[in-house]
Amino acid sequence: MSLGGCLWKGGKMGCCTIGALWVLGGLTLCTTKNCGGTGNAKEDLFDTPKEAIKEAIDMREFEDVKTPTGSFNIDFITERGPNKRYEFTVLGKDENSQIKVKVREIGTRKSELGGTARFNVVFWDQMYPEKQGLGFQVRLNDNGGYAVGPYDGRLKTVIMTDGERTCGKMYGHNTVDFSQIAPDLRRSSTIHRSELIVPEKLMTIPQRLIDKHHQYNAPLMLQPQQTVHRTEYTR
Could you read off the pLDDT of 45-104 as tens digits, one per residue? Predict the structure, then answer.
């Protein structure tokens, strides 16, 4: 599905101030932790051609899950109006072999993000780390609405598993960064929900990234084509 074929909603809003720490790094955790890696999404995540995939042998005889399923949340500190939350539920393949994702947008129609937020998500199942993650692009419209589309290696990538949550905020030049702060959502309510189709793109997650996730138990963030350096923060 292309981004042009997705549904959009509109809205405007009031004013919001924050005092929080935000991650600005290469490969970082979406927390105050620093971690290793190249910081390059094209090197840290890669495709495996279907014809080259070999089935993993597991003595536990687990179910052979082809694509991960589960839910994750992306909260958002807005520039104006009540903060927002986007709930994603990855349903897996349907009878037509299409991968369905349910999305619920929580906020108000007056909320504004401060720009269009475009980034990648790689969703994986930590119960079966030898399986590949599902990679796709997320686009959150400034005035409301969202879309999903093909993974784009030029964008920032957030690696998440079932039950996880992270929080985004827009900066200059339509740049979004992520952290684990918990925004105030008390004035927010459901404004839109839909079921979308994401392209099938399975991404191999190297063991070093899996180890970092297990170490800190938090989502990981990859900056495209940037060298890793010590994580920096601003207020």
Answer: 655 444 333 333 333 344 445 789 999 999 999 999 999 999 999 998 888 889 999 999
Instruction: Quote the pTM value.
Output: 0.72
Residues 99/132, Cβ–Cβ less than 8 Å: no
Q: Which stretches of the chain are assigned E, i.e. beta strand?
A: 22-24, 28-29, 46-47, 70-77, 84-93, 99-107, 117-124, 133-140, 146-149, 157-161, 165-171, 175-179, 189-198, 202-204, 220-222, 232-234
Element (H, E) at 218: none
- Name every residue whose Cβ is closer than 8 Å to that of residue 75 and which is 6 or more positions away in sequence: 83, 84, 85, 86, 165, 166, 167, 168, 182, 183, 185
